Amino acid sequence: MTFPIVLRQFAVALAAAISLTTVWTAQAQQPAATATPAKSSAAAPVILIVDYQKVVRDAEGAKSVRQQIDTYRQNFQKEISAKETELAAKQQELSKQSTVMSAEALTTKRKEFEQQVGEVQRMAIIRGRMLDEAYGKAMNDFNSVLQSIVDRLATERSADLILPRAGLLFVAKNLDVTDEALKRLNQQLPKVTIQMPAPPPANAP
């Protein structure tokens, strides 16, 4: 196994792992249309509209999640890059020693090197999973608070139905409560603190 091939394989693994959670334009998990208890009267139903994509894009809590995840991602990439540099130095040294080593010793060294490459690739995958898990949990917490705010708005305005803005061609301004939901959300949840999970034991699968 030559080092350029190893690095290409490593780069692919790193990109696949670390980029799992680096789509910072990810949309919120839009709740299904929320229905409030039916009214006894025959009056026209009261419908409210929420632009969940705008809320996730502009809410301070969601911004804080993306900023923290991006910082973790950059730190992880630096960590992996340092390991990559170490592998490059070891590969270079192995190439120099190959002219004076026996075939058996060289084979052993190459196997050790390939094992180290595998360990670094595994580290990259684990770091990617950690980012994914932390991001998912933080956004679940964010969406839970958002949903509670939307539910309160529905109660306050005696709404029968709440619909997401996405897919609607026209919405009357008096039906759209996005700005009010965003205002309350920023007051109640200005920041969501990321809780990064601990990496698994070295011998874990």
Strand content: under 5%
Q: Within the largest sheet, what's the order of strands?
A: 1-3-2
- Unreliable stretches (pLDDT < 50, length at least 5) are 1-28
Name the structural class. mainly alpha
Could you tell me the radius of gyration in angstroms? 26 Å
- Terminal CA distance reads 24 Å
Largest sheet: 3 strands, mixed
Number of distinct beta strands: 3
Give an account of the 3D structure:
It is a single chain. The protein has 205 residues and is mainly α. A 3-stranded mixed sheet has the order 1-3-2, covered by helices on one side. It is rod-shaped, with a radius of gyration of 26 Å. It contains 5 helices and 3 strands, in the order αββαααβα. The two termini are 24 Å apart. 61% of the residues lie in helices and 5% in strands. The model is unreliable at 1-28 (pLDDT under 50).
Helices, strands, pairings?
Layout: H1 3-18, E1 34-35, E2 47-50, H2 52-58, H3 60-97, H4 103-156, E3 161-164, H5 178-188
Parallel strand pairs: 2-3
Antiparallel strand pairs: 1-3
Helix pairs in contact: 1-3, 1-4, 2-3, 2-5, 3-4, 4-5
Q: Short description, anyone?
A:
The chain is mainly alpha-helical and 205 residues long. It contains five helices and three strands. The radius of gyration is 26 Å and the shape is rod-shaped.
